[in-house]
Every structure is written in structure tokens, then in C-alpha cells.
Design goal:
Elements: H1 2-15, E1 29-33, E2 38-41, E3 50-54, E4 60-67, E5 70-74, E6 80-84, E7 88-89, E8 93-96, E9 101-104, E10 113-117, E11 122-128, E12 132-137, E13 140-145, E14 149-150
Antiparallel strand pairs: 1-4, 1-7, 2-3, 4-5, 5-6, 8-11, 8-14, 9-10, 11-12, 12-13
Length: about 160
């Protein structure tokens, strides 16, 4: 009996790979701001109060819930609310988490440094391996260590 309960608990933990009820996409997941300005509301409708306004195009955000045409999002600091889905893009971006993050020609710290990105730079996200991601911003591109980026999960692999 204890074994059966253990299997059920393990199965529910695996099934906790939650999916959005509207899109059937994984929750949480990362997206970016499609526009240069977007209202963040207290609830999922136009009747809810605007708490603040996101004002940075391409800013990475994490979707944590869905309701109709609305997505509950959080930024790097955990601040968030409900945003209309039309303001969001599936294009992936990341935020540089450590000042002067070095970007390399290859996913190897012994390779040539291509650039150094300042804290808070928003970069386009390309492929990711176990520890490294290809990023680009301001005409510079290369491989950055995943631990220095916000907008990609530690175990995420991208082609």
C-alpha cells in the first residue's frame, strides 16, 4: 500500500509539468514584451486596475498563469500582474544578471572573448546547451554562461 501511494505521489510530481489551460503550453515559461509599453493589471480583464506599466520592449518575462486572453507574468524581480497576450511575444530574450558578463566565441571560457555585456542588458536568446547559451545584443554575439542570464531555466536545452 505504501508503495502504491509512493507511485501515485511520484506520478503527480511528474504530472506537475503544469500546462496552461488556454494554450496547453508549459507553465511557467518565458516570453518577451512585444511592445515598448504594456499595462500590468491586478486581474485578467480591462476592468482591473493598472498597477504599473512595463516600458521596455523585448524585456524577458515569465508566464505563471493563463486566463482567456490574459497572461500573469513576472519580471526578474518577481514583480508582475496580468498582461493581455497581444503585448507578448514568443521571441526569447534574456537579461544579463552579472555586470560585464563575458561572451565567448565558443562555449568554453578558454576561447576568445567576443564582448562583455553590462548588467541589465537585454539580449536575444539562441541555442542553449547544458551550461552555455548563444546570445546577441547591440551587434555583438557569442556564448555566455547560463548562470549569468535571467530568462532561461538551468535545465533548458534549445536548438
Amino acid at each position: 500500500m505504501a508503495f502504491l501511494c509512493g507511485l501515485l505521489l511520484a506520478g503527480s510530481a511528474l504530472a506537475d509539468g503544469k500546462r496552461g489551460p488556454v494554450t496547453n503550453l508549459p507553465l511557467p515559461r518565458y516570453v518577451s514584451m512585444k511592445t515598448g509599453e504594456g499595462n500590468v493589471r491586478r486581474g485578467p480583464s480591462l476592468t482591473h486596475r493598472i498597477d504599473w506599466v512595463f516600458k521596455r520592449r523585448d524585456m524577458p518575462l515569465q508566464i505563471t498563469a493563463e486566463h482567456g486572453h490574459w497572461r500573469r507574468v513576472e519580471d526578474r524581480d518577481g514583480a508582475g500582474g496580468w498582461v493581455h497576450y497581444a503585448l507578448l511575444s514568443g521571441a526569447r530574450t534574456v537579461l544579463i544578471e552579472q555586470d560585464m558578463t563575458q561572451v565567448y566565441a565558443r562555449p568554453d571560457p578558454q576561447s576568445t572573448v567576443s564582448a562583455a555585456f553590462e548588467l541589465g542588458v537585454v539580449a536575444r536568446l539562441g541555442e542553449c546547451g547544458a551550461d552555455w547559451c548563444w546570445i546577441s545584443a547591440g551587434g555583438y554575439r557569442g556564448w555566455a554562461h547560463k548562470s549569468r542570464l535571467w530568462g532561461v531555466t538551468p535545465d533548458e536545452l534549445r536548438d
